[in-house]
Design brief:
Layout (H helix, E strand, L loop, with lengths): L1 H19 L4 E3 L16 E7 L11 E4 L2 E3 L4 E3 L3 H17 L4 E3 L10 E13 L3 E12 L4 E13 L5 H21 L5
Parallel strand pairs: 1-5, 2-6, 2-7, 3-7
Antiparallel strand pairs: 3-4, 7-8, 8-9
Helix pairs in contact: 2-3
């Protein structure tokens, strides 16, 4: 019995080591600061955030030529890109507005909130040898009156500082901070 276990254990160990050495690297977008600690203040909801199909995937995507994109399969998002984008926009926006009363889409239908921010991302990637770009349309809705109070187009760029995918993700995180600052500056009552 022991003679059968050793080869099986050796095979399982080799498979585990092979999985660890796959070369995959995982990346996460980051907010500029933490969400305010208290859950009071202006009640806002962020979402839904829509993302184009060409980047709504597990791998990072960058533009290498005018009409060509590269997908490095070993460089992946640590989680869902849409959820990560929503989280970062929401955290940055709540910090800028000084509220910890933040809901991220999807929320329960009866969740009370004064304003809802919707974002339709059209482009969100880095260009090889250039900047990271974010093009989107966003709007703020007053949930009490059920009216759109602000609707704007955002066109942002951010230099990629350094080489590699970490520098690209850092630039994309700064793009989302730019977007949050633009939204916060347009918020009703500011």
């Amino acid at each position: 019995m022991l003679s059968l276990r050793l080869p099986v254990l050796a095979l399982l160990g080799a498979l585990a080591l092979g999985a660890c050495s796959s070369g995959e690297k995982y990346y996460r977008l980051s907010a500029e600061g933490a969400l305010p600690a208290n859950a009071s203040g202006l009640a806002i909801g962020v979402g839904p955030v829509s993302i184009p199909d060409y980047i709504d995937r597990g791998e990072l995507v960058f533009q290498s030529q005018d009409n060509r994109f590269e997908i490095p399969y070993e460089h992946r998002w640590a989680g869902n890109l849409r959820a990560g984008t929503t989280r970062v926009i929401g955290t940055n926006l709540a910090r800028l507005l000084g509220t910890g009363n933040l809901q991220l889409y999807p929320w329960d239908p009866g969740t009370p909130m004064r304003y809802q921010v919707r974002v339709d991302i059209r482009q969100f990637h880095a260009v090889s040898g250039g900047d990271a770009i974010l093009q989107c349309v966003w709007q703020i809705e007053d949930r009490t009156s059920r009216r759109t109070v602000v609707r704007k187009v955002g066109d942002f760029s951010e230099p990629v500082r350094g080489d590699g995918y970490e520098a690209i993700v850092a630039a994309q995180s700064r793009l989302l901070a730019q977007l949050a600052r633009s939204i916060a500056a347009s918020f009703p009552g500011r």
